[in-house]
Specification:
The structure holds 2 protein chains of 2 kinds. Helix content of chain A is 66%, strand content 0%. By secondary structure, chain A is an all-alpha fold. Chain B is built from 9 helices and 5 strands. In chain B, the strands form 2 sheets. In chain B, strands 2-3-5 form a 3-stranded antiparallel beta sheet. In chain B, strands 1-4 form a two-stranded antiparallel ribbon. The chains are: A mainly alpha, B alpha+beta. Chain A binds chain B through residues 46, 48-54, 57, 337-338, 340-342, 356-357, 361, and chain B through 1, 6, 9-10, 17, 20-21, 23-25, 27-28, 31-35, 37.
C-alpha cells in the first residue's frame, strides 16, 4: 500500500490527472451501465406487477439479469442503414445521446466529497448538457430521412426546449435556499437543516414542477410524445436497429437514473440518512429557526444523539452510498409508477402545461421563496406562535 | 384564465393523478399475478375447448364408431378431411381405408362434430399439436383414434337410451378412465361388424371364461397394437368380417396385417372413391387428393 502511494507520488501531476480522470470515467461508465441494467429490469418488473403479471422470469433469479440477454441479443442483431439517410448524422446521434446521459453522473455527489467533478455551477452544467439531448433527438430524426422520425424529432425538440426552461426555473428555488449552485453544497445545506428541513417540503411547489418537467425532459410517459408508438411508429428511432437502437435505450435509462439522482440530491438530502440525530436536528431547527434563535433542548439532544459524525469515514461512505441509491431509486420508482399509471398527453396539452401552467407556477415559486426568505430574515423574531418558540417562517431561513 | 380556475384545475388534476397512482399501487401490492407458467404448469381447459377433431371408439367392443358416411367431409368448410373407403363384401358395410384431417388448415369450427350422425367425432382438448415438419400435421385415422381414446366411453349393449350422455359431451363427462383406454391386446380401433353379428366385448366387460379364452391366444403376439400404429395407415380397416372369426373363441380378431392377407383378393372388391363415380368424396375430400 505504501509502495503504491510512493509510486503515485512519483508520477508527474499531468499523469496523475490523466490517470485519475480515466479511473473516474471508467467508474462512471460501469456505474451507469449497472444502473441501466437494474433500472431496465425494474421497469419491466414494475410494469408487470402493476398489470398482475410477473415480468421477465427465466434468466437469473426471477429474471433479474434479463438485461444481459437483452443486450446480447441486440448486439447480435443486424444493423440496417437505410439507403437515403444522412450517414454521418444518422450514425453519430445514438452515441451523442448516450454521452449526454452519462455526463450527468459527473457532478452527482454520492457521498461526502464523493463527486467526480465538484463544479460550482453544478445545476447550470446539467442544464447545459441536457441541451445535447435535444440535438441528439433532432439528429436522429433528421438523419433518418423518415417522416415518422422527423415528426418525433420535431415534437421532441419543441418539448425538450420548452421544459428545459421550466426545469431550471423550478430548481432556482432550491438554489436560493441553499445559496449555491454546487450540488454538494446543496446536499450539505440540507444535512445542516436536518430531516424536516430537506427541500422537499419547503420547496414542495418547486418539487412538483421539477418532477413534471423532468419527466417531460426525459421523454417518459405520460410525455413520451417523441416515440409515441400509437402515432409515430417509434418516433425518432424508427429507423434504428441493433445496438444503435440499444444505445437509445441505454441513454434513456441512464438518463432516468441520473435525473432521479439529481432529484434526490436537490430535494431529499442526497446521501444523508434519516438518522435519529438528523431527525432531532430537523425538529429542533423548525422550532428554533435553524440556529438563528436559541433552542437549548434541541441543541443538547442533537449533540448527544449525533453519533455518526464521529463514526469511521468508511461507515459514513457506505451509509451515504446506501441512502443515495435508496433515494435515487425511490424517484426511479416514482417515474415508473407514473409511467404505468397515466395515459399519454396530446401535444397541445403538453405545450399548454409547459408554458401556461408550469412556467408561471415556477416563477411564482421563485417569488414565493424570495419573499418568504426575506420575511423570515426581517420578521423572524416577530412571527412566533405565542407561548412557544415555534417560528412560523423557520423553514425558509 | 383566472387565478381561481388555474388553482382549481391544478387541484382537480392532482386529485385524479393521486387516484390513478393509488389504483396502480394497489394492483401492484395487493393483487397476485395471474400468470400461468405455461410449459411448466398448464391452465385448466374449459369443457367447451376446441383442440382437434378426434375419432371415438366404443370401449365396450373396441370398434371405432365411424361408418364412413362422409357427412363430416360434406360439412367441412375448409375441406381438410380426406376419406377413402371400400365396402366389405361380407357385411356390406363401408370400411374406412383412410380418414385423415389436415390439422395445418383445420379451423376447429366444430362443424364435423355437429354433422356426425353416429357420434363418432369428438372435439378433443389436446392443444400441443405443433410439428417441426408441416407434413406431419396430417393426422391419420390411427392418430385420431389413439388420441380419441380418452374421449371414448364404453357404451352398454342394447337399444340406445334416450337422454343419455349427449354426443357433444367431452372427456370429463364420458367417465373414461385410464384403465379403459389401455389397449394391451390390440383390441381397439376395429371397423364395425355387420348387422346380426354379436360384437365381441373387451376383456373387462366379458364373462370370466370368455376373457380367459380370449386373452390366451394374444399373449404370443407383439405388444404393439397394429390398428393404432402409424406404420399401417390403410390396412387397419378391412377385417373381422367373417362370421367364423366372431363366433369362434378367437373373439375380437386382431385387425392385423396378417388377417388382411388371409382374406382372398376375390372376396374383397374395393370401391375406392377416386376410382369409382363417387363424386361426393372425390370432390369434397381435402387437400390430400387435390
Amino acid at each position: 500500500m505504501a509502495a503504491l502511494v510512493e509510486f503515485w507520488k512519483s508520477l508527474s501531476p499531468m499523469t496523475q490527472t490523466w490517470l485519475l480522470g480515466l479511473g473516474k470515467a471508467s467508474l462512471i461508465l460501469v456505474w451507469s451501465l449497472a444502473n441501466f441494467g437494474f433500472a431496465m429490469v425494474m421497469e419491466r418488473k414494475v410494469s408487470a406487477w402493476m398489470q398482475n403479471r410477473v415480468g421477465p422470469w427465466r434468466s437469473g433469479l426471477h429474471g433479474w439479469i434479463q438485461f444481459i440477454p437483452d443486450l446480447l441479443k441486440l448486439y447480435h442483431k443486424e444493423f440496417i442503414t437505410p439507403k437515403n439517410v444522412d450517414q454521418a448524422v444518422y450514425r453519430i446521434a445514438p452515441f451523442l445521446g448516450f454521452l449526454s446521459s452519462v455526463l450527468i453522473w459527473l457532478i452527482i455527489p454520492i457521498g461526502p466529497k464523493g463527486t467526480s467533478m465538484d463544479l460550482d455551477i453544478g445545476i447550470i452544467f446539467i442544464a447545459a448538457i441536457t441541451g445535447y439531448d435535444v440535438i441528439m433527438v433532432f439528429m436522429a430524426g433528421w438523419g433518418s430521412n423518415n417522416k415518422y422520425s422527423l415528426l418525433g424529432a420535431m415534437r421532441g425538440a419543441a418539448q425538450m426546449i420548452s421544459y428545459e426552461i421550466t426545469l431550471v426555473m423550478s430548481i432556482i428555488g432550491v438554489v436560493m435556499m441553499a445559496g449555491s449552485l454546487r450540488l454538494s453544497d446543496i446536499v450539505l445545506a440540507q444535512i445542516n437543516r436536518g430531516w424536516f428541513g430537506w427541500f422537499l417540503l419547503p420547496q414542495f411547489l418547486g418539487f412538483i414542477i421539477f418532477l413534471i418537467a423532468s419527466l417531460a425532459e426525459l421523454n417518459r410517459a405520460p410525455f413520451d410524445l417523441t416515440e409515441a408508438e400509437s402515432e409515430l411508429v417509434a418516433g425518432y428511432h424508427t429507423e434504428y436497429s441493433g445496438f444503435r437502437w440499444a444505445m437509445f435505450a441505454l441513454a434513456e435509462y441512464i438518463h432516468l437514473v441520473g435525473w432521479s439522482a439529481i432529484a434526490a440530491s436537490l430535494f431529499l438530502g442526497g446521501w444523508a440518512g434519516p438518522s435519529g440525530s438528523t431527525f432531532l436536528m430537523g425538529l429542533g431547527n423548525i422550532v428554533s429557526g435553524f440556529g438563528r434563535f436559541p433552542n437549548g433542548g434541541a441543541d443538547f439532544l442533537f449533540a448527544g444523539a449525533n453519533w455518526w459524525l464521529w463514526a469511521h469515514p468508511v461507515t459514513v461512505y457506505v451509509f451515504g452510498l446506501f441512502w443515495f441509491v435508496f433515494k435515487t431509486y425511490l424517484f426511479v420508482f416514482l417515474a415508473m409508477w407514473i409511467r404505468w399509471t397515466l395515459p399519454r398527453v396530446r401535444i397541445d396539452q403538453l405545450m399548454d402545461l409547459g408554458w401556461k401552467f408550469l412556467l408561471p407556477a415556477s416563477l411564482f415559486n421563485i417569488f414565493l421563496t424570495g419573499v418568504l426568505k426575506y420575511a423570515a430574515s426581517v420578521w423572524g423574531n416577530v412571527l412566533v406562535i405565542p407561548g412557544t418558540s415555534f417560528h412560523l417562517l423557520g423553514w425558509w431561513m | 384564465m383566472g387565478v381561481n380556475s388555474f388553482i382549481g384545475e391544478a387541484w382537480r388534476a392532482g386529485k385524479s393523478f393521486v387516484t390513478g397512482l393509488n389504483i396502480t399501487f394497489n394492483e401492484m401490492v395487493f393483487r397476485p399475478p395471474i400468470t400461468v407458467f405455461y410449459p411448466d404448469e398448464k391452465d385448466d381447459i374449459p369443457a367447451w375447448f376446441r383442440g382437434i377433431p378426434l375419432q371415438k371408439t366404443d370401449l365396450l367392443t373396441g370398434e371405432y364408431k365411424c361408418t364412413s358416411c362422409a357427412m363430416c367431409v360434406e360439412a367441412c368448410p375448409v375441406n381438410v378431411i380426406t376419406l377413402e373407403w371400400h365396402q366389405d363384401p361380407t357385411t356390406k358395410k363401408k370400411v374406412a381405408d383412410r380418414y385423415a384431417i389436415d390439422m395445418s388448415r383445420c379451423m376447429l369450427c366444430n362443424f364435423c362434430i355437429e354433422a356426425c350422425p353416429f357420434d363418432s367425432l369428438v372435439m378433443g382438448m389436446d392443444y400441443e399439436l405443433c410439428k417441426i415438419d408441416p407434413e406431419n400435421m396430417v393426422y391419420e385415422f390411427e392418430d385420431l383414434l389413439r388420441l380419441g381414446l380418452k374421449y371414448s366411453k364404453a357404451e352398454l349393449p342394447g337399444p340406445k337410451v334416450k337422454n343419455a350422455t349427449p354426443p357433444w359431451v367431452f372427456a370429463q363427462l364420458t367417465g373414461a378412465t385410464e384403465a379403459d383406454i389401455q389397449d394391451e391386446n390390440g383390441f381397439l380401433g376395429r371397423p364395425p361388424t355387420g348387422k346380426g353379428y354379436t360384437p365381441a366385448l373387451k376383456p373387462q366387460f366379458q364373462k370370466k371364461e370368455e376373457a380367459v379364452a380370449q386373452t390366451a391366444p394374444h399373449e404370443g403376439q407383439a405388444p404393439a397394437a397394429p390398428a393404432l400404429t402409424k406404420n399401417t395407415p390403410t390396412q387397419t380397416a378391412p377385417v373381422n368380417a367373417n362370421p367364423a372369426n366372431v363366433s369362434a373363441e378367437a373373439g375380437p380378431a386382431k385387425p392385423a396385417v396378417a388377417k388382411a392377407s388371409e382374406t382372398t383378393p376375390a372376396e374383397v372388391t374395393e370401391v375406392r372413391p377416386d376410382q369409382a363415380t363417387n363424386t361426393e368424396t372425390g370432390t369434397k375430400d381435402g387437400g390430400e387428393s387435390k
